[in-house]
Design goal:
Elements: H1 7-16, E1 20-25, E2 40-47, E3 51-54, E4 57-60, E5 65-69, E6 75-79, E7 86-92, H2 94-100, H3 109-112, E8 121-123, H4 126-141, H5 147-172, H6 181-202, H7 211-218, H8 222-233, H9 237-254, H10 259-265, H11 271-282, H12 286-293
Antiparallel strand pairs: 1-7, 2-5, 2-7, 3-4, 3-6, 5-8
Helix pairs in contact: 4-5, 6-8, 9-10, 9-11, 9-12
InterPro entries: AraC-bd (IPR003313), Homeodomain-like_sf (IPR009057), HTH-like (IPR037923), HTH_AraC (IPR018060), HTH_AraC-typ_CS (IPR018062), RmlC-like_jellyroll (IPR014710)
GO molecular function, one term: DNA-binding transcription factor activity
Keywords: DNA-binding, Transcription, Transcription regulation
């Protein structure tokens, strides 16, 4: 697999190919402004870089730090070393990773589980750093016959490795291995409810999706909905809805919809809120996005 030359191209390639892409970058590429993607992102610091901002939380960056970011979390590098900033950035299509998961192995967990003791960042040990770079080397070395299969195999090894490292830190933090059958059944029940909520949201983007409306539709309290949704997805329900509406808006604008029509079709009842949310997430206004992408 050939490494991409920029962050933007990794995002574009992973979504177009419905799989994943990565880049090995240095300080000669200008860092992106605050943004969200339609994909998961792995950011690994080899050296340089000073500070990362993820969902309004600042993280100092050290050599060997790895950040696991889901598609609803806004982020950007807020400070960068002037001398050198070397990193690996990987973009992953969420549907692709879900398809690769099994009932007993959820490869998306490291992107979504968010307890107070388990935020977005892990610091890899020296051995783990070498292992991570070994998998990246395997990906960058594949070519010729069977390249797609070898890429998939190396990627699977990498995701199992990262989730094992993540789970070990969860366990050490006291965080979250549910072992009793009773708790397992509760999780299954909660996940079924969240699946129903997600399905409803995704098919009613133009409608009122306030917490009160969802609470009334599902006969569940708003606080309960917020709690199970955050536990299952790693993000708040409002952030999810906004991210989905922005994604739909980008698609409509690329198809030639006017800004006002896209705003209405995506369920933004107030244009100023739409303008603010879109610009914050994408980095440019809807009108400029339509000009560049239609």
């Amino acid at each position: 697999m050939k490494a991409c030359p920029s962050c933007k191209e990794t995002v574009q390639q992973c979504m177009e190919k419905h799989s994943f892409a990565f880049a090995h970058l240095y300080n000669d590429e200008k860092a992106m402004d605050m943004h969200i993607h339609d994909c998961y992102e792995i950011y690994y610091s080899i050296c340089g870089g000073k500070q990362f901002l993820i969902d309004n939380c600042f993280y100092d960056i050290h050599e060997g730090d790895i950040f696991l970011i889901n598609q609803f979390e806004s982020h950007y590098l807020s400070q960068i070393d002037s001398q050198k900033h070397e990193r690996i950035v990987m973009s992953i299509n969420p549907d692709y990773l879900k398809e690769l998961s099994s009932q007993s192995t959820d490869l998306t967990r490291c992107f979504h589980f968010r307890a107070s003791d388990m935020p977005h960042r892990m610091h890899l040990t020296s051995e783990e750093q070498n292992r991570f770079l070994y998998y990246i080397h395997k990906l960058s070395s594949t070519n010729g016959f069977g390249e797609d299969i070898m890429d998939r195999a190396a990627f699977l090894e990498l995701m199992v490795f990262l989730n094992r490292a993540f789970n070990a830190r969860c366990k050490n933090a006291g965080g979250a291995h549910i072992t009793s059958a009773e708790k397992d059944q509760a999780v299954i029940s909660h996940n079924a409810q969240v699946d129903a909520i997600l399905s409803y949201i995704n098919t009613h983007m133009q409608d009122d999706l306030s917490l009160d409306e969802l609470s009334s539709h599902f006969y569940l309290s708003s606080s309960y909905i917020c709690r199970i949704f955050k536990a299952a997805t790693g993000t708040t329900i409002n952030k999810y809805i906004t991210a989905k509406r922005i994604t739909l808006s980008k698609s409509l604008l690329s198809q030639g919809y006017s800004v006002n029509d896209a705003c209405e079709a995506c369920g933004f009842n107030d244009y100023s809120n739409y303008l603010k949310a879109f610009t914050k997430a994408v980095g440019i206004s809807p009108r400029k996005y339509a000009q560049y992408n239609s």
